[in-house]
Design brief:
The structure is a homohexamer.
Chain A: H1 2-21, E1 25-30, H2 33-36, H3 38-53, E2 57-62, H4 66-74, E3 81-82, E4 85-86, H5 90-114, E5 119-123, E6 130-134, E7 144-149, H6 152-159, E8 163-167, E9 169-170, E10 180-181, H7 184-194, E11 199-204, E12 219-221, H8 222-230, H9 238-250, E13 255-260, H10 266-272, E14 279-282
Parallel strand pairs in A: 1-2, 1-11, 2-8, 5-8, 11-13, 12-14
Antiparallel strand pairs in A: 3-4, 6-7, 9-10, 13-14
Helix pairs in contact in A: 4-5, 7-9
Chain lengths: 283, 283, 283, 283, 283, 283
């Protein structure tokens, strides 16, 4: 009987969220273990398929991570670094694009297709969808920052009933220019803004944002987040994540979530339960 | 952690059913305690609202039960009985219609309206929606059996986004005829058939169909049900219920459920969990 | 030949009015003898069917009159009176609703259905269509005055090709509240305003508004009507009628007619002939 | 009071016919006095406007009669005759077309425009709408018989809300061919068939078809009509009229009427009263 | 090879113009030799058909010229002249209309029909499309100047996929008025304005506007054109042409062209080549 | 003047073809010099943009050629060969996909975007658009042959107004399978069939099919082509091209063209001139 009450509670919760998010666009930044473990990949595909089946409109933005580095190594392309950040040379840019648009993007498309979430993969070059300019006046080579997003192609894909899978490559709108390499977290935020998405979720390899005692913080405001950065509680690789989250919130996205991609079905748990499983940041 | 796994299981279950029943018509025969207890009424309204919100199309068919008897008594209208079944006299018919179409129907409409499941109440007389003829060549007076259902008015109400609430009164298609009093369980079955409903559920004041040891039987076929009737395991008031269920199944409805209306949120539990809570009868 | 000229004149007249009122909503307050005499009922149904067939959109609002009183008597429900007006107690309210929504409303629906004017009966509770508040701060119990009308359900019924038949019961938008009893004349006026009706017609048991010499006045303005009230020429039961008419005109309805429901086909004669048969009040 | 009863009867009659013919195409062959008397012309235009206003779709086919003869005379173009029928020479054909398409057609268009029946005039050459071949292998010169009608242009005009006014000129579908002169009665019948018209009416300068005692025959069948021709009761100029009528009926038009164009509003009287005023021929 | 390069150049040119004018309305004033030579007529029809086939919307406005004069002569209708301009008497007006609407208009319609450019001929009387008032307070009789154009009938014809062919006759919007005779060049300009046409082209029997040395001027502005008139370089019959052109430009038409109708396919050459063949006047 | 006549001839020709191919799908296999020379690339993009602008629907299918080989070399991936054909190992397949879907596909998309022919790049994995099975029972590793094409995604892209650019990679419809490498010529043919294309054109680095004397053959039938193969006149690399062409013709494509991609604007010249510039093969 107690189990029945819990089941009812889970159902009431989930139905409420399903009703609330019906027809809404949900941008998911896909990366980390969830992108590499075979078992987690399948759970992820299943979650995307179910969210879509109950009426939401998931959009996947992915990074490339280790595959890019390993192909650069295989090809003996050396990278220069400024302040610890890689400078994308022309040679490297070719590799970045091949890996992101040609390998990883199509792998995710195939994965989702297997789970009845028919997907179409695009990069920011398709229909000149994402336009970028060089970061820091070109100090980082072909690493770019987004200048403009024309989301109509993504709306078309959604209207046709497919899940858009987006590689974070941008066009330079110049003939014979190789295009730009874009940070995937920032791309997800900018795309979420352009699509007027309800939520953006970042799948990471941590539990979420942790407090001084390394315990998960369930909810944060922008102000509180900035405070934690200043205090050094949020540090390292988490800083760009929360900054991307804040960017999205300032652009009109209602909620940004940093969740644990190592946990099975973390997407469902975060979106459809009132307790959630990661950190939710709001205005 | 164990709780999270259970939650995920409940979610996967529910999402699968929601996907499966999206856009499907679900006919609910509403009666018994669920119709009289204030607390159960609210849970019922909440369930209907949620089923509708996630994309199903619930249709409510109600009976009148005790209210009719009590108004007949107040008015000193005596009833004749044949084989234990009430004969509906012309005087009684007026009372039956006033209670069903004028009191109970509008009460349910108001109840659902309060829970964001905007409802419209009709009887079989509206648009001549349900046509009947006298039962047993008139031995039961104005008690009728359904001859024809023209469901287009119900489809219109569904298309306009409302929950149809139906009083089991039928038209005789004759000028100045008072119409017919219809058994609500049979009306629910016939309406489910005419609407090509996916499911019909009967809310009762029992756990469901019980076996010889008074334990709930989870699933039944028509054949097995008939056997249990013959053996006397199914008896009394349960017989007309299962007969109505069988009628619906023979007319093309996929599943008929007899569930416990005394249990809170029994509709959600039966429709959205794989274990269910009552008896499900299939072809 | 003279007859042919008259026929031509009648046709030219009628065609002009049909052209003028094509697609317009015409609200008819149905009551009095036209609602009780079998022969007049049929003529009324025929008129509604023909008006609809030639392109107008009739909407019927009905009262309950004697049926309510007689059922209250049968049930020994005593009524308190203030200034000659009945106070609707909770017990009485139940009777009012049963008679209006359950008996009379469905009778009219059946009547119209027999004359190819397919009808759907609703009360103000359906889809929370009419919201009311207590009259005079509750001195009259559950007698209400209309606060808000959301006409979309009536437009839906009209768009689906049916004649809406409306019982003057309103919702209180509160859980477990029995709703309100509304004056049918005023309900007709308010509904005509909300529907942006072209005309509202009140079927009465008099010839129309009479002058000092008891002769029918064909046309009146609001100003002239008020004058006649002040002078005592309009008195008694006619005062609430003309007030309802004036209310409609002030709300934007073009013309309000008070006509003799005892005359066969009075609706056709008033709407489709230039001489008319009753009193027409304009701004 | 007696007058009111007659008015009601006329209204009930007319409303029934209006309902019956709503949306139906009614082809009117316009000619004779109705086309020449200024007073009758206005009545005709008024009738067409009213029929259109109440939902029918009138289509006017006209002849040219005396205007053609008089212009031929003015231009000293002599005509050859075979069996009393004029042979259309090339010179005459030019005159026929100028008078029909350039003078009479535009006069009727202007007339109808003045009565709020916005009209568009076309001939069979527009969009190659009527194709003809020479009559009797060319013995009658450019007098043609209709081979094919492509009515889509007329449907377009009707859909755009205009009254089509058609000059009985046909195309030969050959470059530099002057086209064909077509008998207007037969053109009306063929057009009525091609448009799947409900009725075709021929305005003539007689009362209708008369019996042996010169009294009007109200209704005829094709069989009876042929009998009357054989017996010589129908003779002279009435024969081609009834033959055109029979042609239309055989092609699927429900009723063909031969009516007195000299009578004011004869169209209304024939179409909207049960007694009618001319002769109605049915299958 | 050189030929291939020229072909490529012609194609690139033409494709650019086709793309630019896709969906645009092009008004062509048709007259002169192009209207009388059998060979030129066919080339004209072919050009109109091709312009239409590649997506433009040609509209033809025609004059009547010599045919009117010759029929007036045949009928011995004498004309009065004021300042060298013909006064249109009532008798002459009948002839003008018969020739324009009945003869020439239908000839052009038949011609275009033969070249798969399905055409519909109308005059300003159809649907009261062009309204005029007397020129110079009636000094020129039934010669009128355009007061108002309601282009919806022309848009309907274009939307239905036909080429509109327009006779320059206008309605007076008065019962029994014969209408007005309109200058065809001015009619073309006014129609182009009312249709928001991209271009208006005047087919003439000259090369275009010539300079002092009788050499063709390729492009002109309104200012330069007025200068040339003042200087007497533009004179005689060319003055009304350029004035009609200027009228169109002032009304919003982008370009007006005066081209040589004696040259085969002059329409194609002017519209689809960058060099053009006549004079193009712009704001 | 002679030049004008030639221009007119070119225009008449081109307009006829434009009319004929309006709305038709034209599949272009893009490869060879046209894909590598910067100048030819721009001409190609211009041609595609113009064909699209005048109403055709170009679809580009590309190969990868030398880029694949060079990346394989850089990565030291050795290839096995059977009968001179490369066997695609799993390692090679990764490179093939990265180059085709990630590098070349997006380069072409960017190129077309620069010329106002907004393009979207996809591979056969997107929406599981092209399904393949191993060639010769797997002897060639991950080289596949097309089993099924579901063209709806390409129709969506065309309907949205974009040029589809297709990489010849197919899905295996199996989880974790790397997919298949498909011959681009055959892919173009199969896609042309699935899209019910009017034409398929193969851009090559030869003039077209040559006869025994090395002179271009303008038109061929399937029969004649097979004969030339048997006689050895068609040989070497031209054999798979003509076989792909024949495959398309047998599948319902009207014409297959083998044209010289080294010639500027060869697409326009072949499609829009009656002389053409390459070899056209028909049934």
């Amino acid at each position: 009987m107690k189990k029945k009450i819990e089941t009812v509670q889970t159902l009431l919760d989930a139905l409420t969220y399903i009703t609330k998010f019906r027809g809404d666009i949900i941008v998911v930044k896909y990366g980390g273990s969830a992108q590499t473990s075979d078992s987690l990949k399948e759970k992820f595909a299943q979650d995307i398929a179910l969210l879509k089946a109950v009426g939401m409109k998931p959009v996947v933005v992915h990074g490339g991570g280790k595959s890019i580095t390993s192909l650069l190594d295989e090809l003996n392309i050396k990278s220069e670094f400024i302040d610890g950040q890689r400078v994308t040379s022309k040679e490297a840019m070719r590799v970045v694009e091949m890996v992101l648009s040609g390998e990883i993007n199509k792998n995710i498309v195939s994965l989702l297709n297997s789970y009845e979430a028919k997907a179409i993969g695009i990069s920011g070059k398709d229909a000149n969808f994402i336009k970028a300019i060089p970061k820091d006046e070109g100090r980082f080579g072909y690493t770019g920052i987004i200048e403009e997003i024309n989301p109509s192609i993504v709306f078309n894909i959604l209207d046709d009933g497919f899940v858009p899978v987006i590689a974070p490559i941008a066009t330079a709108s110049k003939l014979n220019h190789p295009g730009f390499n874009i940070n995937a977290d920032l791309a997800a935020s900018k795309i979420a803004i352009a699509l007027k998405a309800r939520k953006v979720l970042f799948l990471t390899d941590t539990e979420g944002v942790l407090d001084r005692d390394k315990k998960l913080i369930k909810t944060l405001t922008i102000a509180k987040t900035n405070e934690l950065i200043k205090e050094g509680v949020i540090s390292g690789g988490m800083i760009p994540k929360v900054n991307a989250a804040i960017e999205a919130l300032k652009g009109g996205v209602k909620k940004a979530h940093i969740i644990d991609g190592r946990l099975e079905h973390s997407l469902l748990l975060e979106i459809l339960t009132s307790s959630g499983i990661g950190t939710c940041i709001e205005l």
